[in-house]
């Protein structure tokens, strides 16, 4: 229990408990709202790793051999409820996700290629600029990826360290900026 400060002048006081934050993550997780599908056409052309079997061949070499230059999809989802902890200066989160890769065939059939379990720690810090409330999100403590065997016939387990580095780079390049754009400052009433 924390005693709330007494107001001596007009101010906004925001108090979030771990119970409220974790209840919200439980609701989102239970409702199935913590997933996102990324396809080859959703990534910018300048992004260094395209979702094509040709690009992924460096992580799972037989992909290009079995499915030459085919587009891929990545299905990202939470495999467990995210855990949040509140601290005076920030909100810390532990994310437990999975990334399942599929090869998209000419008839639009999706063939499972590999599945990675990805864990990451993030920190969100509130910011106040003038009369605007916002925040920043950053990766803390890195992340880790554990492979499950490639599911398509004849594929081996992907080379995880390189793929993990690529996924971290993608999270740093796209995930964190997206989260920060969602935390842009809002006027305080």
CATH topology of one domain: Bactericidal permeability-increasing protein, domain 2
Shape: elongated
* CATH homologous superfamily classification of one domain: Bactericidal permeability-increasing protein, domain 2
Low-confidence stretches: 148-154
How much of the sequence lies in strands comes to 35-45%
Secondary-structure content class: alpha+beta
Main sheet: strands, sense, barrel: 7 strands, antiparallel
Q: Total number of helical segments?
A: 4
GO molecular function: lipopolysaccharide binding
Organism: Corythaixoides concolor (Grey go-away-bird)
Subunit structure: Monomer. Homodimer; disulfide-linked.
Subcellular location: Secreted
Layout of helices and strands:
Layout: H1 18-30, E1 35-39, H2 53-56, H3 62-66, E2 72-78, E3 83-86, E4 91-104, E5 110-129, E6 132-148, H4 160-182, E7 186-187
Antiparallel strand pairs: 1-2, 2-4, 3-4, 4-5, 5-6, 6-7
InterPro entries: Bactericidal_perm-incr_a/b_dom, BPI/LBP/Plunc, Lipid-bd_serum_glycop_C
Protein name: Bactericidal permeability-increasing protein
Subunit structure: Monomer. Homodimer; disulfide-linked.
